[in-house]
Amino acid sequence: MSQTPDTISDTKTKDHEATQNHIMLVDTIQHGDVENLKLPVMDKVDKFGAHAKTDPREIKLVRKLDYYIMPILWFMYTFNYLDRNAIVNARLNNLEADLGLQGTQYNTCVSILFVGYMFRISLVMAGFGFAWSLVSLLTFLAHDYSSMMVLRFILGIVEAPFYPGALYIISLFYTRKEIAFRLAILTTGNNFSGSFAGLIAAGVFQLDKKLGLTGWQWLFIIQGVFSALTALMAFWLLPDNPLTTKWLTEEERQLAHNRILIDTTDIQESTSVWSGLRYAATDWRTWAMTLMYNLHVSSLGFQNFIPTVMLGLGYSRNVTLALTCPPFFLAAIIGLIISWTSGRWNERTWHIVICKGIVIIGFIIPLATSNFAARLFSIFLFVGFSFGINNILLGWSSATLGQTNEKKSVALAIINMLGNLSNVYTPYLWPASDSPHYRTAWCASISFAVGVIVVALFMKYSLKARNKRILMNNAEVKNLYVY
After folding, report:
1. What is the predicted pLDDT for the residue at 282?
2. Which residues, 6 or more positions from 405, have their beta carbon under 8 angstroms from its beta carbon?
3. What is the pLDDT of residue 54?
4. In terms of CB atoms within 10 Å, which end of the chain has fewer, N or C?
5. Is the dihedral of CA 411, 172, 383, 81 positive or negative?
6. What CATH architecture is 67-260+271-473?
7. Closest to 222 measured CA to CA, from 416, 89, 62
8. Which of 414, 407, 346, 332 is nearest to 120 (CA)?
9. What whole-number distance in Å separates Cα of residue 263 and Cα of residue 468?
10. Which of 138, 139, 148 shows the shortest CA–CA distance to 99?
C-alpha cells in the first residue's frame, strides 16, 4: 500500500512528537521529584536506555508482582503442557491400539491440536483455562480416531489464548531487562511438566483396569481435575493492567505503569485495537520476528516424540518414561540461566545464536551415530538448550514491537499464532516408518535451527542501523532498540 507525501509527513510528525514526549518524561525522571511523580529512580542506564533497579520502591514492587503474577501463570502453564501432551505418554499405554489408530493417524491427532492455536480468542484466560481442563478431562471418553480428533481440535482452540495472554500480561508489568527471566520462570512450568510427565504417567498407569478404565484414561481424568482447580484460582489472581490491579496500592499502580512507560522504545499514544492491528501488520519487524519464532518452534518438533525416540534406544516403557525427565529438568535450569544473563547484560542475539549452535550439534549426533550413549547425550543437548530461546525471542519481540499496548498485543498474537502453525506440519516429519533413526526429522530440524540464527543476525544489524538513525535525528534520545 503506497503512502502519499502528506501521510509520510504526518507519520514523521507523530513519531517526532512521541519521541519528544518520551525525552521530556525521561528528563523529568532524571531531574524532577521522582517521589511525588511515582517514578523509579534511574541511577544507572545502559546503552539502550534500560535502567538498573536501585530504587527500593521499585524493588519492592517487582517482588510483589512476582509473588502474585508468576505462581498462578506458572501453574496454569504447567497444566497447559500436561493436558496438551498427555497423549504423548498415553501412546505408551496402548492408546493407538485402544483407539484403532493406524499409519499417521497418531501424528494427525498430535498436529490437529495446534490448528486451534491459529485462532485469536479475546476472552478471559482463566475461563479458557477451565475450558481446556474440562476438554482434557473428557478426552478419556475418546473411543476411536474421529472422537480423539474432535477433542484434540477443541483442546487446541481453548488453549490458544493462554500463552500470548500470559506473555502480554508479563509485558505490561515487567521491563525489557526483566521479561526474559520471568518468561523463563513461566517456561519452567513447561520444562518441569515435561520432566515429570513421564513419572506421573508411569504412576497413573498403575491404575490400569481400575473401575474399568485404562491407564491412559485415568491420566486424562486426573490431570484434567487438577488443571480445573488451578483455573478457578486464576479468576481471582490474574490482573488486567497495572492501573486496575486490585492487589496493588494506588502508589504501586502508578509506579508499575510509569516504569513500563519510560522503558518503551519509540513509545506512541495508545490507539484502538484496529489501529494496533494495522501498525503490527505493516511493521516488517513483526513478520521477521514471526519467521524467527516459526523456525524456532519448527525445530522443537522433537518434543512430541521424545518418549518414542527414547523407546527406540531399547529400554522398557517405565525406564523410557523415567529417562525423559533429566533432559527437561536441565532445560529448565539452562533456560533460567541464559534468560537471567540476557536480561542482566541486555543482550539477545548472541544468546540465541550460541544456544542454537549447541542445539544443532545435538541434532547432528543422531545422524552420525547409533551409539546409545552418544544419542542420549544429544538429547540432553538439543532439549537442554532449546527452550530458553523461547523466553529471549518473545521478550525481544515484545520490546521491539511495544510502541503501543494495542500494537504489542496484536503483534504477540500474530507471532504466537503463525509460530505455532509449525506444530501442524512438524509431526509428519516423524513418521513411525522412519523409526528409530528419523533422518528426515533431524535434517529438517537442523535447517530450521540454522534459519533462526540467520534471522537473529539480520534483526541485530537491522535494529543497530535503526538506533543509529534515531540518534542522528536526535542525539538526546536515551531509549533505543535492544539487540
Report:
1. 92
2. 172, 241, 270, 276
3. 73
4. N
5. negative
6. Up-down Bundle (1.20)
7. 89
8. 414
9. 19
10. 148
CA distances from 217 to 8, 155, 221, 281 (A): 60, 16, 6, 43
Instruction: Give me the pLDDT at residue 122, please.
Output: 36
Kindly list the distances between the CA atom of residue 150 and the CA atoms of 91, 113, 317, 338, in Å, as whole numbers in the listed order.
18, 9, 28, 39
Predicted pLDDT at 95? 56
Enumerate the β-bridge partners of residue 51.
Answer: 45
**Contact between 349 and 396 (Cβ < 8 Å):** no
**Position 154: which residue type?**
I
Cβ atoms 362, 385 nearer than 8 A: yes
Q: Give the separation between CA 374 and CA 367, rounded to whole angstroms.
A: 11
- For the stretch 260-274, pLDDT in tens is 888 887 776 666 667
- The residue among 323, 331, 322, 321 whose CA lies nearest residue 300 is 331
Would you give the end-to-end CA distance of the chain in angstroms? 29
Contact indicator for 414, 280 with CB cutoff of 8 Å: yes
What are the CA-CA distances from residue 41 to residues 172, 253, 453 (Å)? Answer: 19, 16, 37
Q: What is the DSSP letter of 117?
A: G
3-state secondary structure of 45: strand
Q: Are 76 and 231 in contact (CB under 8 A)?
A: yes
All residues at 6 or more sequence positions from 193 whose CB lies less than 8 Å from its CB, including other chains: 78, 79, 81, 82, 85
For residue 51, give the 3-state DSSP assignment.
Answer: strand
pTM for the model stands at 0.72
Contact 305, 430 (CB under 8 A): yes
Element (H, E) at 48: none
- Amino acid at residue number 297: V
Give the residue ranges of the chain where pLDDT is below 70: 1-43, 49, 51, 83-124, 191, 194-195, 268-273, 304, 307-318, 320-321
* Rounded CA separation 464/458 (Å): 10
* Interatomic CA distance for residues 44 and 52, integer angstroms: 6
How high is the pLDDT of residue 195?
A: 66
pLDDT confidence of residue 316: 67
What's the 3-state SS for 290-350? HHHHHHHHHCCHHHHCHHHHHHCCCCCHHHHHHHCHHHHHHHHHHHHHHHHHHHHHCCCHH
